[in-house]
Write a structure and sequence with these properties.
Layout (H helix, E strand, L loop, with lengths): L1 H8 L2 H16 L6 H9 L5 H4 L14 E4 L7 E4 L2 E2 L3 E5 L2 E2 L20 E8 L13 E7 L10 E11 L4 E11 L3 E12 L15 E13 L3 E15 L7 E18 L2 E17 L11 E18 L3 E18 L13 E23 L2 E15 L13 H9 L4 E15 L4 E12 L3 H5 L12 H8 L9 E3 L7 E13 L4 E23 L9 E26 L3 E16 L13 E9 L3 E10 L17 E12 L3 E8 L13 E2 L5 E2 L6 E9 L1
Parallel strand pairs: 4-7, 21-24
Antiparallel strand pairs: 1-2, 2-3, 4-5, 6-7, 8-9, 8-32, 9-10, 10-11, 11-12, 12-13, 13-14, 14-15, 15-16, 16-17, 17-18, 18-19, 19-20, 20-22, 22-23, 23-24, 24-25, 25-26, 26-27, 27-28, 28-29, 29-32, 30-31
Bound molecules: copper (II) ion (CU).
The site of copper (II) ion has 6 residues, from strand 14.
Length: 699
């Protein structure tokens, strides 16, 4: 954890100094595995694994630039700099995964458990071009576990852990076994977890928040003369995940992932090459426990990714790298008929038919240390995004939806975008303890397949087409209860970002970091209001079409950490404070942007001796007042919650932990949780008090 918080905490600074250290070091042959593994297992306050349940995104809970748009218990969408989901570049072992669902129920981080995470890094705002394109808000980079290599005798490793949470009967069983010698490394990582619906601060059950998932991965790595070759195979299965802010739930999501990666010398060049493939089978319907009616929906996707980058010219003070990335993504999305329902039969509703979104990218990046106090990172990247999809059909030719179908099928649907990204970061070392980084960036993103190609509602008169309004409500990864239709003529979004970071590090263990940023997003993909329902069960629901509108987002993130006391008998004390503020609105003044996290902060006190670790935390969130008017977004109230945790290490192998989350059983609404569809379209309530016990055994 020490390593993680250090890397995350430095954010922009990462790009200039630590970034080159970490990523270059990882890229070279001899330093790949062991350093970070030690860190994640053995250091730093309460361990991430005992602190986080369900969602692996929670591992970034000490990073002020990252927020969570919640939905299902393991499928939160990351939010950085006021934008979410596809606008945040998430890479697991260097590979991105596209959400394959009209509600984005299966984002990249839903396929790994926090037990598998070795290191997780957040880079808000201006991401170096070599780490990815086709995204705006920042990057989250995850490296999964790996048993490493030994420097002498071979060794076996093993870890078994179990976590129980009282509020929602959360149970997590995880296991790892591994073997490593000088040049071979084999590991298995598995997690099985489940939770019932959680209770809010009034002890009322928040229905449709239960989930189950199991996750298995195998990794084999071999040290070669000039590098390291690794193979990973993973399978994730979610038999059930309730979505409190959607009209249906996930009843199955099965994914197989294959990854081959080489890091080391290619000829004389330090290089990274990876090839990966993922298949996803996704099925949604309504969980029978609470809802009557059926809404079966299927999605399957295939994604293949090839990345190759090399350091072309390297000296003591300068490094120039170049690379290519190719991403082939295909998707089918269809909804089977429900017999007896006139508007939903007799045909399959074909939402996306053999949709393709392929990307070809090329980038060049240079890092130069000009003198002892000034360095730059300059990069340029081109992403060519090519999209197409086949003909579609509605449930029938009477009520759902012949006019939309005929119109969509008559359109030219092939689209190619050429997107340019550019970054320029300048770091000035003011003194031994102070540093400033100024960054200027241009980042772009092409629309996703659902934004461009969903079609129900394109031509229908929504006032009289109830079945079409239902189709539209199925397209919604915002959790706002509204309905959406695509727009084939959408242009890519282009963000121009200006950011500045100030860092202070004292010899006495104090660290301060503050990052204000300002971004102007040309052609931000928002929505235009088409219709507000005035009758029936969907009264008040908004029906919208994706549309480009210029937007502005600005904000500030800050953190302070201080190792303020070191004692003989009570160990080391650290206090940490984090805060973030974001504001986002459309330039035409029509609306504020949806789901902007209100001002929030955290205060964390840690104390640790060699055996004990203790933690107290207060989380404060201001009222959400700035909301998207066109989406009828609800406001939420201010709140504060407190958590306590303790962890004790018995000998060398056993660790036990106890946490009390939401100690005062405070009732509050989630500011980025969307609408609670089942319980009267109100905001979604946060989780009430929970006692969490953990047991960990390290071989
Ligand atoms: Cu789904």
């Amino acid at each position: 954890m020490m390593n993680k918080s250090k890397v995350c905490g430095l954010s922009l600074y990462v790009l200039m100094a630590v970034y080159s250290g970490v990523v270059f070091a990882e890229g070279s042959a001899d330093t790949l595995p062991t350093v970070t593994i030690q860190d994640s297992n053995k250091t730093g306050h309460l361990e991430r694994r005992t602190r986080t349940q369900g969602d692996s995104l929670k591992a970034l809970d000490e990073e002020p630039s990252v927020q969570m748009q919640t939905g299902g218990g393991i499928s939160s969408l990351p939010v950085m700099h006021g934008v979410s989901s596809d606008r945040v570049n998430v890479k697991v072992d260097g590979v991105g995964v596209t959400a394959s669902c009209p509600n984005h129920m299966n984002p990249a981080l839903s396929y790994i458990s926090s037990f598998q995470v070795e290191a997780i890094t957040a880079i808000p705002g201006i991401t170096p071009v070599s780490l990815g394109g086709d995204s705006l808000g920042g990057s989250i980079l995850v490296n999964t576990q790996h048993p490493g290599f030994t420097s002498g005798e071979s060794r076996y490793s093993g870890q078994f852990s179990s976590i129980y949470g009282s509020n929602e009967d959360y149970l997590n069983l995880s296991a790892h076994v591994g073997f490593a010698d000088l040049s071979n490394s084999v590991g298995y990582y598995g997690t099985d977890e489940k939770a019932r619906d959680y209770k809010n601060g009034k002890s009322d059950i928040v229905k449709r928040t239960a989930y189950e998932q199991n996750n298995h991965s195998l990794v084999y790595a071999r040290k070669l003369a000039d590098g390291t070759l690794s193979f990973r195979v993973g399978r994730t299965a979610v038999p059930k995940q309730g979505f409190v802010n959607q009209y249906m739930d996930m009843l199955e999501n099965t994914a197989m992932k294959y990854n081959v990666k080489y890091r080391g010398l290619l000829g004389t060049l330090k290089s990274d090459v990876s090839l990966s493939h993922q298949n996803v089978d996704h099925y949604m319907d309504k969980l029978r426990d609470y809802s009557s009616g059926q809404m079966p929906m299927y999605t399957d996707s295939k994604e293949t990714n090839l990345l190759a980058k090399s350091h072309l010219i390297s000296s003591q003070t300068s490094d120039t790298s170049a690379g290519v990335e190719v991403n082939f993504y295909s998707l089918n999305d269809w909804w089977t008929p429900v017999s007896g329902m006139g508007g939903m039969s007799p045909n399959n509703f074909v939402n996306i038919n053999d949709g393709h979104r392929d990307r070809y990218a090329f980038f060049v990046e240079n890092e130069t240390q000009w003198n002892s106090s000034y360095s730059t990172n300059i990069g340029a990247r081109v992403d060519v995004v090519s999209m197409d999809t086949g003909r579609v059909q509605g449930y029938n030719n009477t009520s759902n939806a012949p006019a939309d179908e005929a119109y969509f099928n008559s359109l030219e649907r092939n689209k190619t975008d050429v997107n340019y990204d550019m970054t320029w970061l300048n770091a000035y070392q003011i003194s031994e303890s102070q540093k400033i980084v100024l960054g200027l960036g241009r980042k772009s993103r092409s629309p996703n397949l659902y934004e461009r190609y969903t079609w129900a509602g394109l031509q229908s008169t929504l006032a009289t087409s109830n079945p079409v309004r239902m189709d539209m409500r199925m397209i919604n990864w915002f959790g706002d209860g509204n309905g959406y239709v695509g727009n084939i003529n959408l242009r890519p979004e282009v963000s121009h970002i200006l950011s500045a970071s100030y860092f202070y590090q004292s010899a006495q263990g104090a660290h301060i970091e503050i990052t204000p940023y300002y971004s102007e997003i040309q052609d931000y993909i928002d929505a235009d209001l088409k219709y507000i329902s005035t009758t029936g069960s969907d009264t008040g629901v908004r029906y919208l079409q994706f549309a480009n509108h210029d937007a502005i987002i600005f904000g500030t993130e800050a953190s302070v950490s201080w190792d303020f006391l070191q004692t003989e008998s009570y160990g080391a004390f650290n206090i940490k404070a984090l805060t973030s503020f974001t504001r986002g609105y459309r330039k035409d003044g029509v609306s504020d942007l949806y789901n902007q996290m209100p001002w929030n902060g955290k205060l964390i006190l840690n104390q640790e001796t060699s055996k004990w670790k203790n933690r107290a935390e207060v989380h404060m969130v201001a009222a959400k007042e700035d909301v998207s008017g066109i989406r009828n977004e609800h406001k939420t109230g201010a709140y504060a919650t407190a958590d306590l945790g303790t962890e004790y290490k018995w000998g060398t192998a056993f660790t036990t932990s106890l946490q009390v989350l939401n100690v005062f059983d405070t009732q509050y609404d989630l500011p980025l949780g969307g609408k609670d569809i089942l319980n009267g379209k109100s905001p979604v309530a946060g989780k009430g008090r929970s006692f969490v016990v953990g047991l960990n055994y390290d071989l």
